[in-house]
Design brief:
The protein has 72 residues and is mainly alpha-helical. The protein contains three helices and no strands.
Length: 72
C-alpha cells in the first residue's frame, strides 16, 4: 500500500507564503485578519485545543500567522 501524498495546500504557506488555508485549501487572500481568525476558530475551536494533534496545532498556527501578516 502506497502512502498518499499530502495536498499542495498543506505546505503552500510554508513554501511560498501563499494565503491558502492548510486545512481546507481555501484561498484566504480576500479575507481580513479577523476573517482568517474566525476561519481558524471555526476549524480549531479553543475548547478542544488540548485534544488536537500536533498537525492540527501547526495548521492553526499557520492560519494565525496569515492573520497577523494581514494586520501590517
Amino acid at each position: 500500500m502506497t502512502k498518499q501524498a499530502e495536498p499542495a495546500y498543506r505546505t503552500a504557506y510554508e513554501e511560498t507564503k501563499a494565503e491558502i488555508c492548510p486545512e481546507t485549501g481555501e484561498d484566504l487572500s480576500g479575507f481580513s485578519a479577523d476573517g482568517v481568525r474566525a476561519h481558524a476558530e471555526n476549524l480549531f475551536p479553543d475548547y478542544g485545543r488540548d485534544n488536537f494533534s500536533d498537525e492540527a496545532k501547526a495548521r492553526k498556527a499557520i492560519l494565525l500567522a496569515i492573520a497577523k501578516g494581514k494586520e501590517r
